[in-house]
Amino acid sequence: LFVAAPSPAQTIDRGWSDASTATAIAASAVSVVMPRVFYSSPEATVGWKARWHISALAPTMTHAALGFLNEAALKEAFADPKPCAGCGGFGLFSTESYVASASLGQGIAVFLVDTLQYSGGKFHFGGFAGHVLVPLVLTGITAGGRIAANEESGEQVLGSLGTGLLSGAVLGLVYSFSQEPECGYTGNLICW
Q: How far apart are CA 57 and CA 96, in angstroms?
């Protein structure tokens, strides 16, 4: 789709490989450090609030565990070779593409729930930028980097992106519906 048929002269580009790994890690980090942004209910102080939740680690750690499972077992089970002839290893699923797009899916779900459920449909650009735009850019760089590095083919990256986006959205919905953005009556900025 995106990459021509492999030739024996192709090699792994370590620069793009390392850069795409870094952007995948950054996308995961954003999903952990981005606060839940919401418009406060009338029972409390009215206005925009941001709260950091330790519980945001749960979906992110689940994505990381699935990434480790992919590296340990799934790649060999699918046995879909990398596009680089003679480089060894398997390309499907792309762990980096999966993790980055799972962070994007999680961010989209959290943003939508916080906007529609907890903010009465009020839009906040900061929440949109942190939960959607930043992970979207990092996911794009990760996916393009994996293809440019010859680590995975376009088809392998697209399959990984779709899987990550879907699982991220599901885990993000479960998390954001299970954990309200407000910290209760304490008013703390960091919630458990």
A: 18
Nearest to 162 by CA among 90, 91, 110, 93: 93
Structure tokens at 119: 């903010």
Strands 36-39 and 190-191: unpaired
User: At a CB cut-off of 8 Å and minimum separation 6, what does 14 contact?
Assistant: 149
CA distance 21 to 79: 21
Strand order in the sheet with 190-191: 36-39, 48-53, 190-191
Q: State pTM to two decimals.
A: 0.85
Nearest to 104 by CA among 11, 27, 181: 27
- CA 153/CA 43 separation, integer angstroms: 53
Q: Per-residue confidence of the chain (192 residues) as pLDDT tens digits? A: 455 454 444 777 888 889 999 999 999 999 988 888 888 766 666 778 878 888 888 899 998 898 888 888 877 777 666 666 666 666 678 889 999 999 999 999 999 999 999 888 999 999 999 999 999 999 999 999 988 888 888 888 898 899 999 999 999 999 999 888 877 666 666 776
Do 21 and 46 form a contact (C-beta atoms < 8 A)?
no
Q: Does residue 183 contact residue 49 with C-beta atoms inside 8 Å?
A: no
